[in-house]
Give the backbone structure.
Amino acid sequence: MSNSNSSNGQAGFTLPAFAESGDALARIFAALGDPIRLKLVAILCAGGAFSITQLTTSTDITRQGVTKHLQVLAEAGVVRDVKVGRERLWQLDPAQVALARQTLEAIGREWDVALAKLKAFVEAP
Amino acid sequence: MSNSNSSNGQAGFTLPAFAESGDALARIFAALGDPIRLKLVAILCAGGAFSITQLTTSTDITRQGVTKHLQVLAEAGVVRDVKVGRERLWQLDPAQVALARQTLEAIGREWDVALAKLKAFVEAP
DNA sequence: TTAATATGCAGCCATATTGTTGCAATAGGA
DNA sequence: TCCTATTGCAACAATATGGCTGCATATTAA
């Protein structure tokens, strides 16, 4: 089987840094990988700080369901909560979103480099 | 409960477009939301086209497990496969990655706009 | 033809995820 | 104080996910 040229690891090219960035990055993407959570992020990035009850009115699920989604987002570091009175207000923390965006930019750059190498190889004299 | 001022929907501000972009966008993020799949993407964006057997050597799971991960990525449109001989070579399709990146950029922009509005409100005479 | 390689497909199992209901607890306002 | 609004917590069911084994199928090479 395969053997031979390998495919990476001890291969002939280096992987981009995010390949080994552990689970933190994957958790950010996974947190964004749900339609309801994506909508919650949209609300939070457009508005400011909202309570769970307020956010619930924007979805078709129960308050407790929204709470679970917010917990997923919070564990990924995408949102934060602040207690004020008897309410718990949620707001976006854009740092992790920026990290995810930089990763996707890195993928695009690597891809461009790979294309350029291929082009140079094909056009070699 | 809550009632009152709403929080969006029929609220006083407009949501960014990605809020209602259906499940396609969420599927892209979900596809990237796994450490193994993130590594596969890293390999593919750095290299070119690899067979399942080759990709398996880069992971700690079985070939069938890798196949399932590739299917998740394929259903999100992140990777494509090409049959050549008895092999099935996989390669990145950067279009969906670019779409995800644009979404994260939009979140960042919305956030900046919201901050600017807040600043203007606080500093109002 | 025969053997070896590469993949496909089905089924199984353990665990995680998503959403619910029900009840308790905390905090504000009349 | 008493009522109400907001949230927290626990248990539960249904489904999805991630990983495996086992076997079948195709394709290349000798």
About this structure: Residues 1-2, 34, 36, 61-62, 64-65, 68-69, 72, 85-87 of chain B lie near DNA strand D (CB under 10 Å from a C1'). Confidence is low (pLDDT under 50) at residues 1-11 of chain B. Chain B touches chain A through 61 residues (CB under 8 Å). Residues 19-122 of chain B form a domain with the Arc Repressor Mutant, subunit A fold (CATH 1.10.10.10).
